Amino acid sequence: MNTATDPADARSGGRVVALVPAAGQGTRLGEGVPKAFVTLRGRTLLQWSVDGLLDSGVVDRVIVIVPPDRVAAVGADLPDGVDVVAGGTERTDSVRAGITAAGDADLLLVHDAARALTPPRLIARVVAELRAGREAVVPALPVADTIKSVDLLGVVTGTPERSELRAVQTPQGFDAALLRRAYDTTDVVTTDDAGLVERTGARVRTIAGEPLAFKITTPLDLALARALTDPDTNE
Ligand code: C5P
């Protein structure tokens, strides 16, 4: 008798583990510390992102991945039950460390620490789609700008049709076995986990993203996040 669990059954009732890679040294925000550790209303972007995941009510465990020299300090600042592991040189190395730490999770979310204001309802929608049987789910928004590809000299090499383009956000959600397979079968370094999963031939579905899930990357983004969380102008 075949007693193997059907992957779709595991997804519908399985354990959800969220990975938050925050091990980059990027200081594009100009605040003198890596982006994930910039503060917004007294809490780091990483803490905001972790709180959003916990508030969603659909995540069983959160694992954050940070620079090796920050593991102890970050662990002390996060709620009980949130695990902290050391990341690697590239973002993909950090996600890989998180996948290993997640053990036997059935569903994995990968969430940018810099998407600090992501509404918990978006996180819940990603998980609901996975539980309904999707194996890879990515929030996405139409793009407002026309996007061009360029070569190293800045010369335009193409203009993709804008209506077919989407800006993707996080959390990106995956059947855990699929994400493990995607990471096991390639050493490609990427900024996008869904891109690795696409290489396996799996179907990645987009769902409607949320403007508030924007990535806080530039000083302008940070100013917007500060305005949006200003207690004097918001109820
Ligand atoms: O630089 P970028 O915004 O694409 O980084 C996305 C996320 O990946 C950030 O939260 C960053 O901290 C994380 N990262 C990581 N390990 C690295 C490089 C980036 O966890 N080696």
UniProtKB/TrEMBL annotation:
Pathway(s) per entry: Isoprenoid biosynthesis; isopentenyl diphosphate biosynthesis via DXP pathway; isopentenyl diphosphate from 1-deoxy-D-xylulose 5-phosphate: step 2/6
Enzyme class: transferase
Keywords, comma-separated and alphabetical: Isoprene biosynthesis, Nucleotidyltransferase, Transferase
Catalytic activities: 2-C-methyl-D-erythritol 4-phosphate + CTP + H(+) = 4-CDP-2-C-methyl-D-erythritol + diphosphate
InterPro entries: IspD, IspD/TarI, IspD/TarI_cytidylyltransf_bact, Nucleotide-diphossugar_trans
SUPFAM superfamilies hit by this protein: Nucleotide-diphospho-sugar transferases (SSF53448)
Coiled coil feature spans: none
Pfam families to which the protein is assigned, alphabetical: IspD (PF01128)
Residues under site feature: Transition state stabilizer: 28, 35
EC number of the protein: 2.7.7.60
Domain of life per record: Bacteria
Membership in a protein family: Belongs to the IspD/TarI cytidylyltransferase family. IspD subfamily.
Function: Catalyzes the formation of 4-diphosphocytidyl-2-C-methyl-D-erythritol from CTP and 2-C-methyl-D-erythritol 4-phosphate (MEP).
Name the record gives this protein: 2-C-methyl-D-erythritol 4-phosphate cytidylyltransferase
Lineage: Bacteria, Bacillati, Actinomycetota, Actinomycetes, Mycobacteriales
Gene that this sequence comes from: ispD
